[in-house]
Structure prediction request, 191 residues.
Amino acid sequence: MFRKTLAAAFVASLLSTPLAAAPVEYNFDMSHSNLAFSYNHLGFSTTDGRFKDWQGTLVIDEEEPAKSSVDVTISIGSLDTFWPARDKHLLSGDFFDAANFPTATFKSTAVKKTGENELEVMGDLTIKGVSKPTTLYVNVNRIAEHPMAKKRTVGVTATTTVNRSEFGMGANVPYVSDEVVITINSEAMVK
Prediction:
């Protein structure tokens, strides 16, 4: 009798224990996502720009964030600084050399939870054929069911700072800032 009671209690405890969540793939909602950058211009102002065309895969493991990952490809030709002549110069061989290097990529290599809603996403950023280890500092704004789509949705803000000269784009340094701040605001929804 004792063995049957013990076995029943064990089975009940297994059934009441939540199963570990598996990593889940999300699609970026490009209508609510923006990949922007900014840099200091001669100490007078901050110039902003963005890439309008980028795609990627986001995998989230809510139980074990270290099993999460992100892989993004950016179309360099979609650069927009809101001034066509500057865009043309930035796409030239002086900077991105978009004719020979049409894409840039970020592929995560590790994810570390650093706070209640904070992550560090380490990975390799490749621009103009040069790869450098880069860390994205991510704030998870919200993860919940989307009220209209009725699908699990995540909203994040990610930032990092890179030195453009490390990617073969050192023209006009130090007059135009070497440091470029990258900011990504994005929503992504379960596939």
